[in-house]
Amino acid sequence: MSDLYSILGVPRGASQAELKKAYRKLAKELHPDLHPGDAKVADRFKEASAAYAILGDEKLRGRYDRGEIDENGNERAFAGFGAGAGAHRTRRAQAGASGGGHGFGNFKPEDFFADIFGGQGRKKRGPQPRHGADRIYKVTIDFLDAVRGVKRKISLENGKTLAVHIPKMVRQGQQIRLKGQGGPGENGGHPGDALIEVDIRPHTEFRLEGHDIHIDLAITLREAVLGGEARVNTIDGEVSLKIPAGSNTGKVLRLRGKGVEKEDKTRGDQYVTLRVVLPDAIDEDLRDFIERWSAEHPYSVRQPLK
Fold first, then answer.
1. Which listed site, 15, 189, 228, 272, has its alpha carbon 20 to 30 Å from 41?
2. What is the CA 75 to chain-centroid distance, rounded?
3. What is the pLDDT of residues 63-119, one digit of tens each?
4. H or E stretch including 196?
5. Of 39, 66, 40, the residue nearest 54 (C-alpha)
6. Residue 193: phi, psi to the nearest 5?
7. pTM passes above 0.90
8. Rg (Cα) of the chain, in Å, rounded?
9. Could you tell me which of 154, 161, 166, 157 has the C-alpha nearest to residue 132?
10. CA–CA separation, 102 vs 118, rounded Å?
11. What DSSP string runs through 20-47?
């Protein structure tokens, strides 16, 4: 017999778990029930079983590693013990090397076969339980519902109608798992899950960036020049926003704590970008005023070409 570690295909430093895994793999591949009439495979199966009978027992493995027993479980002869010691074979080694069911120490090949071949030794494995398939459903909600949370009724393909709680701050494409509401299992397996994928309609005014809300606010020429107050929409309702005098298009104002809730229960902010909007119709009075004012107060807003 070759080196026992080589037979199992593992290095000498392999753990007991690695030895067990290696033997289990070989037992699956070489079991006589899978190769009827193949004597070579049967011999390899017996050889692997005998190797694991020694290496699978930590005490016997230690003796083998120290050279006290050989690959067949025979006691090795040592100086002072006499030549007769080398011919002695232990009863446990005889059982292991012959491939019998008694094995070495606590090793029992039938325990492996019950595990590998379905609990009946050499009896082949029957149909195994299979987990049911997951089912994916889509639900479309409004932006504010995604921020605040909402309940929606979902009709499943099995005919059930469920009220699904969609939590606040749900994100685009996020899936909500309903355990056991998917496809049926087979052979006693558990049913799959229903995955509710959330699609969020864009809001006409609010834009979400992280935990902050962004909006654009149109202001008049008078408000831009002289300043003033404007009513601004937030996710909690309208608030008053002070517009500083001399505000230009692109100026950003912040409303603290008017964003969405964070994990620590604090809130982000809302950022308001101002857009100066001229009246739809420019009358003669405005035209004349701008001409006179521009002549007296010329200024440039563009960089000259280089």
1. 15
2. 53
3. 888 888 888 877 775 544 444 444 444 434 443 444 443 344 455 555 555 555 555
4. strand 194-200
5. 66
6. -110, 160
7. no
8. 40
9. 157
10. 21
11. HHHHHHHHHHH-GGGSTT-HHHHHHHHH
